[in-house]
């Protein structure tokens, strides 16, 4: 019986079909993991089957699913797996990812899961600090409006909680809404209007600046957030920078791996 321990990290992301943002977000997060844990191999898996299919058909790039990555790690003789999602919240994708990984529990000595970005109250404070550093140039005349994804999962309440925490920390001109849930654009419009900024700055509250950021947020479509805020009479700027580009966000993911690396 071989008792040698071989640990590896599995970085699990939703994925993106946009190479420009992937390089500076998902790739950058995985590079940070390699730098922080040079002794562990870092494997990649994505949870969006649709994006995996699209990359294969369009670019002939193969990205493994969680199950495929777990199979590969078992074949490579890995004994202990540290799974670190780059998901923003403990939502549906994260639940599914855990299920897929745990279906291999008999193939490994241990499988541990790091927390998604926003899990504890401490995470929220660190994320706000990272955002405040990134947007230190925002003036009182500007409203910084983040577009989160949103989910039907009960974990969605974290978005409203984070918006509240921005204000509690003194960032009264920082707002967080979602594309698919609450707080919605309707709520955002009311809150931003009450603040009365001269200019609205839009930024994605997502790991990558992909389809949602480029189309739903910054696009020219009349339904985009850019167009809707313009229609409200504001000057509008868009920042196409995913959370994975922020150094403070990447280091929080590293902290989450350290917490499970025993």
Automatic annotation (TrEMBL):
Domain of life: Bacteria
Gene3D superfamilies in UniProt: 3.40.50.1400
InterPro entries: Anaerobic_Co-chelatase
Entry protein name: Sirohydrochlorin cobaltochelatase
Organism: Blautia caccae
């Amino acid at each position: 019986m071989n008792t040698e321990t071989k640990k590896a990290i599995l970085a699990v992301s939703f994925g993106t079909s946009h190479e420009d943002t992937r390089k500076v977000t998902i790739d950058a997060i995985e590079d940070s993991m390699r730098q922080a844990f040079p002794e562990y191999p870092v494997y990649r898996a994505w949870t969006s089957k649709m994006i995996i299919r699209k990359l294969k058909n369009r670019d002939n790039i193969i990205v493994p699913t969680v199950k495929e990555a777990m199979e590969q790690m078992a074949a490579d003789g890995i004994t202990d797996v540290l799974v670190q999602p780059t998901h923003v919240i403990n939502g549906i994708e994260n639940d599914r990812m855990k299920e897929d990984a745990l279906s291999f529990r008999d193939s490994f000595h241990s499988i541990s899961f790091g927390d998604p970005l926003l899990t504890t109250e401490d995470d929220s404070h660190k994320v706000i600090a990272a955002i405040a550093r990134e947007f230190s140039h925002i003036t009182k005349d500007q409203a910084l409006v983040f577009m989160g994804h949103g989910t039907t999962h009960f974990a969605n309440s974290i978005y409203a909680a984070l918006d509240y925490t921005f204000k509690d920390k003194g960032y009264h001109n920082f707002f967080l809404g979602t594309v698919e849930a609450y707080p919605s654009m309707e709520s955002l419009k009311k809150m931003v209007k009450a603040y009365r900024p001269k200019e609205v700055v839009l930024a994605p509250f997502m790991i990558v600046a992909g389809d949602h950021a480029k189309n739903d947020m910054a696009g020219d479509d009349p339904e985009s957030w850019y167009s809707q805020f313009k229609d409200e009479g504001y000057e509008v700027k868009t920042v196409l920078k995913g959370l994975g580009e922020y150094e403070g966000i990447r280091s929080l993911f590293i902290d989450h791996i350290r917490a499970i690396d025993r």
